[in-house]
Write a structure and sequence with these properties.
The complex is a heterodimer of chains A (194) and B (172). With 194 residues, chain A is mainly α. Chain A has helices at residues 6-17, 26-68, 73-96, 106-125, 127-145, 151-192. In chain A, helix 5 (127-145) packs antiparallel against helix 6. Chain A is elongated, with a radius of gyration of 27 Å. With 172 residues, chain B is mainly alpha-helical. Chain B has two domains: 4-77, Rna Polymerase Sigma Factor, Chain: A (Orthogonal Bundle); 93-165, Arc Repressor Mutant, subunit A, CATH 1.10.10.10. Chain B has helices spanning 4-25, 29-46, 56-77, 99-118, 121-131, 136-143, 147-165. In chain B, helix 1 crosses helix 3 (56-77) and helix 4 (99-118) packs across helix 7 (147-165). The chains are: A mainly alpha (194), B mainly alpha (172).
């Protein structure tokens, strides 16, 4: 853009002549970014490794239970199924979640940034179906497999399972959603006015 | 993985405007350096997707502004509070004949930066791009705003900056 008058010209010159005193030069910055990327890649690798290792350990435990204790086979298989449902849902959800594109124009970027909050809010609101329900069904199976000769233990296990799952639902749907809504509101306010 | 050499060349060419952009969006020097690193990282990760459909300059500014926006949203979310820029930390005027002239230039530069930081987000985006000398078409392509909206904003921005440079208060 060319300056429309002397006043604009003065603004342009002042702005563009301003130098910042910090010693960040391009080569140093480029090296810092390369190091950071490598370190980030390592962090992601080990995080993924830990998650997969934990999943593998649980699967092995259930498989060992199913093979070595035939009376627990149903519980073990159901446990595997419950965990598989949760992990599959998370994996699919993570894969389908669009990240804001850094190269998009600013208005599209604003919209994508806000859509991220909506996506997370939807995820938390539906937690009772994809996270709690499979695990609760599995816990109910465990409860009903507890010998009928021990009704107190059965009742206690049932109440405990129900209370924990109800707490998880409350934590996500009330506290978690409210927190995300506040964050979204802050982001909206920032976009309107800094 | 992008080519390290072309990345460094790109940074070399765009470092001064990127530093000014980072300083315009932040509240202190540490935050400004942190944002500059975030911008460089975003350029590094987006570089393989640059197909040359827009000019290099437009593309760099898009990535930089989007990163600044995300960076500030994250800072807000974490409720971070920073000390304000002090005149000693501000960008400095490049040259002046006498110490008196230099002091005067510095004072005006300080006012200009303060005025830019007081603008709301959308106006600040337009102001920074305008002051870097980008055309209306380029600003349109970076911000996604219409030419009419950019023109209206620019009129308002010019008035505010000019008033602040003259040392007058700007009414919201």
């Amino acid at each position: 853009m060319t300056p429309e008058n002397n006043n604009d010209k003065e603004l342009f010159e002042m702005w563009q002549a301003a130098t910042l005193s910090d010693p960040n030069d391009a080569a140093r910055l480029a090296r810092a970014i390369e190091r950071r990327t490598q370190s980030f890649d390592r962090t992601v690798f080990w995080r993924n490794f830990r998650e997969y290792a934990a999943g593998a350990a649980i699967t092995i435990c259930f498989l060992v239970l199913a093979v070595r204790f035939p009376q627990l086979r149903l519980t073990a298989v159901a446990g595997l199924a419950a965990i598989s449902v949760v992990l599959f849902y998370l994996w699919r959800n993570h894969r389908n979640q669009a990240q804001p594109d850094d190269t998009a124009d600013l208005q599209s970027f604003h919209a994508a940034l806000l859509a991220r909050y909506d996506h997370q809010i939807r995820l938390l609101r539906s937690v009772k179906y994809w996270y709690v329900l499979p695990q609760y069904l599995w816990l109910l199976l465990v409860v009903f497999q507890t010998p009928a000769s021990r009704p107190a233990a059965r009742a206690m296990l049932f109440l405990l399972s129900t209370a924990i799952m109800a707490f998880v639902v409350w934590l996500n749907q009330s506290y978690g959603v409210r927190r995300l809504q506040r964050e979204k509101q802050k982001a909206l306010e920032m976009l309107r006015q800094d | 993985m992008p080519d390290a050499r072309s990345f460094e060349d790109l940074l070399q060419r765009f470092l001064p405007p990127l530093k000014r952009l980072a300083a315009a969006y932040t509240r202190d020097r540490d935050e400004s350096e942190e944002l500059l690193q975030e911008i460089a990282l975003a350029i590094w990760t987006s570089l393989p997707r640059f197909r040359g459909e827009s000019s290099e300059r437009t593309w760099i500014y898009r990535v930089a502004h989007n990163t600044a926006l995300r960076f500030m949203a994250d800072r807000r979310r974490r409720g971070a509070r920073e000390a304000a820029w002090t005149p000693e930390q501000e960008p400095v005027a490049s040259s002046a004949a006498t110490p008196e002239q230099q002091a005067m230039q510095q004072e005006r530069l300080y006012r200009l930066w303060q005025a830019v930081r007081e603008l709301d987000w959308a106006d600040r985006q337009v102001a920074v791009l305008y002051l870097e000398g980008l055309s209306t078409n380029e600003i349109e392509s970076i911000t996604g705003m219409t030419a009419g909206s950019i023109a209206t904003r620019l009129t308002r921005i010019r008035q505010k900056l000019t008033l602040r440079l003259r040392g007058q208060e700007v009414r919201p």
